[in-house]
Specification:
Blueprint lengths: L33 H23 E5 L14 E5 L14 E5 L15 H8 L10 E9 L3 E4 L6 E2 L2 E2 L20 E4 L4 E5 L21 E2 L3 E10 L5 E2 L13 H25 L10
Antiparallel strand pairs: 1-2, 2-11, 3-4, 3-11, 4-9, 5-6, 5-8, 6-7, 9-10, 11-12
Length: 284
């Protein structure tokens, strides 16, 4: 009899050389050490923090009481830096951070940060040592007429503002000196005031500077959107309803009407040209 071939269930010959290799319990999987990966993780974290600070959001520390009681000294606020990249401009009622436009902070004491603070400031976790920034509330935008007489109220385009955010006991504006003003805000500028009116050297006190005290929009870093620290003061910073009252945006309200009139004139002329001329009367 010939040799008998033993087949597998699939009908194929078994081959001992194709059998799966038994795992070697002594072999260890090669994994990179955590300590070798740590420097890479730190670099990635720093790069992400720098990108966020530059394009998305940055933390700022409140240095004074000029925005009480909305903001207290030592509060940390998060500032939206993303929307300005898409063309958004500061609006009335927003709390904004802006670079010192014309030496507003001249003579103010400066605390030299240590090396750690400089590093944290560079990635946006602390105020940058080389940046002089202020934080105020936008009262008027380009084209607005802002005025205040006596103890107030502040008026924007003739509309009186009800300002519940003003520090208790303060009047809307000072009774003399720079507290009395009337200005038309230049194009691409904003008029800013602190909520602690009698403790804020804001637009009112820099009317001798270029722009008459108004801040160029290009100097605005972004809008403060939330108080992030301390956690006991965690809160958002919405636009007060007083800035949404009817008639305050007179310039913008006039524009649609003017555009509508300009669009109606060609339509009327076109319809008149298409209207058939009347036939002359037929003699009886």
């Amino acid at each position: 009899m010939g040799d008998v071939t033993v087949g597998t269930e699939s009908g194929q010959e078994s081959d001992a050389s194709e059998a799966p290799e038994a795992p070697d319990p002594g072999r260890k999987s090669k994994q990179r050490s955590f300590w070798k990966e740590l420097p890479l993780l730190v670099v990635i974290a720093l790069v992400l923090a720098l990108v966020i600070k530059t394009f998305l959001m940055q933390a700022f520390s409140i240095p004074s009481d000029s925005m009480q009681n909305t903001l207290q000294t030592g509060d940390r606020v998060l500032v939206d830096k993303l929307t300005p990249w898409f063309g958004a401009k500061p609006q009335r009622g927003e709390v904004v951070v802006f670079h010192d436009p014309d030496g507003w902070l001249a003579g103010e004491p400066v605390t030299e940060p240590n090396a750690v603070q400089k590093g944290l400031g560079y990635i946006g976790l602390m105020p940058s040592a080389n940046e002089k920034d202020l934080i105020k509330r936008v009262i008027g935008v380009g084209g607005d007429t802002v005025e205040c007489k006596g103890t107030g109220p502040v008026k924007v385009n003739g509309k009186a503002l009800k300002e519940p955010y003003v520090f208790p006991g303060n009047t809307a504006c000072s009774t003399d000196g720079p507290g009395q003003f009337k200005i038309k805000v230049p194009k691409d500028h904003i008029w800013v005031m602190g909520d602690h009116r009698q403790f804020s050297a804001d637009s009112r006190y820099h009317q001798d500077k270029p722009g008459g005290g108004a801040v160029p929009v290009k100097d605005v870093v972004g809008r403060a959107v939330v108080v992030a620290w301390p956690v006991t003061r965690l809160n958002d910073l919405p636009v007060p309803s007083t800035f949404g009252q009817s008639g305050i945006n007179t310039a913008a309200a006039a524009a649609p009407g003017a555009l509508g009139l300009m669009g109606a004139v060609p339509l009327v002329l076109w319809r008149r040209r298409r209207r058939p001329e009347a036939s002359p009367p037929v003699a009886p």
